[in-house]
Each structure stands twice: as structure tokens, then as C-alpha cells.
Amino acid sequence: MLPSSCDTFVALPPSTEGQRVIFGKNSDRPCDEVQEVVYLPARDHGAGEKLECTYIEIEQVAHTYAVVLSKPAWLWGAEMGANEHQVCIGNEAVWGRESADGDEALLGMDLVRIGLERADTAEKAVDVITELLQKYGQGGTCMEDECSFTYHNSFLISDRKEAWLLETSGKHWAAERVEGGYRNISNQYSITTKIDKEHPEMREYARGQGWWDGATPFNFSTVYSFTTTARIEASGSRYCEGKKLLEKNDGHITAETMMDILRDKDSGINMEGLFMTTGSMVSVIPTDPTLPGVHYFTATPDPERSVFKPFVFVKNNNELKETSSPSYGADDPVKKKPRFQSKPDRKHALFLKHELVAAVIEVHEDRGKKITEGIRTLEKEKRTQMEEILTNGIVEQDFLANLFSSCVQGEMGLYGKS
């Protein structure tokens, strides 16, 4: 399987407007896969409690933070999300010299969710993920299918003050701190010689494999990739195009800028085909700790034809029913061995409405244009409302508890009229 997956972005002051961190990701997955957006409240857990992830059980911790996640409906983990402390994480598939065809273990998407549930800063998320990687490893197919689709993972992690890039190869890893400007990742290793944290045996392992001579300056990407970083910078790659779009808007990056980047089809960032953009996320995090973060999710494929809907963490956030897929519990074919013997219907309420409207947009140009205009108007109204709380803080907690769901209902109402 050739690399064919996501793009993740982060911009920090001075690249952004208004002293904010802007995080964004397109999740590119099999075109028939449903992505749900769910909210999970903070919880306390009993001693000895176990946590059932996609394929394996691990030890639970005493307390987990509230999270909002965009996730493939069939698995436990998440492609991207945020927590109540405004930590955001997205992961990418990466392939290198080390084989990814190991036993079932933690998926990269499991590590995204666990990092959000257990870390109140970006750096702590790096520590959480790498400790779990060392203890349990990463592995297992990443598609709801009998065929094996496996990869290692890179992660872009941000909080109110900085971002971290974490790249893995088996249990080995390197991490780079980003304290300003912008950064994007796609499906190749991109950490070079600036390494701020690393697996203690990462260099010696590479030397033992004959990948590094032990004398030349250590470049993680060159050593652990199939090829050098020249591949990453190649003209026409999504990584390169994403970097250009960030550079073009440097100093003026906003939520709208990030949404436009995620909608860009010419660059391939908004992917079409057998692998397509099945969910998108943009987060706006003020560096001022007294101000709330706003997290926008589509919960539907193709951001060009979707509404970015806001979510804000407050004391009593409601369950996100319209974007939660049906649950099959112990009867889910993912849980039974051999796995994936059937594929149940995982479409949530918003997905069903959106699927019909996307077909109308595709076939009827005039009606499609009108629907798209309505989508953009609704989205702009919500961004304007969110600008008020991003600037002045939260006044009405109760209103925000149902914010995302009310936006979903408004979107579905718009589709009903269409």
C-alpha cells in the first residue's frame, strides 16, 4: 500500500492572528468508512480497572480528562481530537525501514485518544504515548477489512503554548518541540537533526541495523525512512503544497484560513477517490489561559461540502447523539475472531442526511450551488458567534453545553429544505 493518508497542521504566534494556536487536520480514510464525532466526559476509575482499546486491553489510570473526538466508527481510538485542557492531537501513517506488520497491539489512533484522555499538556502527551508504545507496542490492521493495512505513526500535538511533533518506528521514536511559526505533516518522516526527546536506544538500534554509521550527524528522517527528506520536499507532494499554503498566509492564519486549506482539492489535501477526506477538524486555542478553545468538526466527508461546527468544553456538555454511530457491543464483528467477517451499518443521523445532499450537489449544479452557499452562511454565522467567546470568554455555560448538537440540527434543517 503506497502512502495515501492524512494531513495535519499547526500554526502558532507569530504566524497566527490574535495570539492563538490554530490546529487542523483532514482525516483521509477508505471512502466507505463512517467517521463519528463523540464527546466523552472526565471520569474517575477504580484501582485495577482495565481499558479495552481496539484490539488489546491495557491498564487504566485513576482519572481521564474530558475529550471530543473524530473517529472511525468501528474502532476505539480516534483520528484527531482535543481535551478539556486544550491539548489537540492528530496522527499520520508513516512507512519506513522498519516493518509495520506486527501483532495486534495499540493502533496509532488508540494512542491519540489515550494521549488526550491522560495528558494536560502537549509535552505530557508525548510522554504518555511513548511510554505506552514501549510497554504495549503498535500494530494491527487500520481498516475495517480482512486485508491488512498497517503503518507506524507520527503525531502532531499542540496546547496553548507550543506544539510537539512525535515520529515513531516500531517502539523507537524521536520528538521535536515547535515553539512558534507553523508546521505540517503528511505521510513521511520529517524530523531531521533537531531532536528534543528520543527513545534512549533509538540511535544505537539504527547503528546496529546498518542504517547509521555512528559518525555522521544523526538525521532521524534520513536514517529511519526508506528515502531521504528529499522525497518529502518533492514538488507536488501534499506536504509541500500544505507548507506553501501555510507560508502564503504566514502572520495572518485564522480558523477560516485553516478551513480553506483543508478544503483545497488542487493540492490533494482534500482527498478524493478510494481514499478520501472522511472527516475534518480545526481548533482555535487562545494562548490566554482564561479564554476557552473552540474546536470545529465536520463529522462528514469532503469539507468542501460540509459544515465546520463548533464545540466548546463546559461543565455539562451534552452527548453528541446526531454524530454518534450505532453501537453493536460484544456482537460487533470487530470484536469477534476471526475479525471483519461482516460490516454493519455505522451511518449516524448527520451522515445519512449529508450523503443524500452530497449526491444532489454532485448531480444538480444550480441546486448544489445554492446548498453550498447555505453551508457557508451557516458556518460563517457560527464562526462569528465563536469569535465573541474567543475574545471575551464564556458568559452562558448552558448555551454552550448543546452548541455542537444545535449546529448539527441547523445543518440537517438546511439539508431538509434542500
From TrEMBL:
- InterPro entries recorded: Peptidase_C69 (IPR005322)
A Pfam family matched by this chain, by name? Peptidase_C69
Q: Which GO terms describe its molecular function?
A: cysteine-type exopeptidase activity; dipeptidase activity
Q: Where is this region: Disordered?
A: 322-341
Single Gene Ontology BP annotation: proteolysis
Protein family (similarity comment): Belongs to the peptidase C69 family. Secernin subfamily.
User: What is this protein's name?
Assistant: Secernin 3
- Organism encoding this protein: Gasterosteus aculeatus aculeatus
Species lineage:
Eukaryota, Metazoa, Chordata, Craniata, Vertebrata
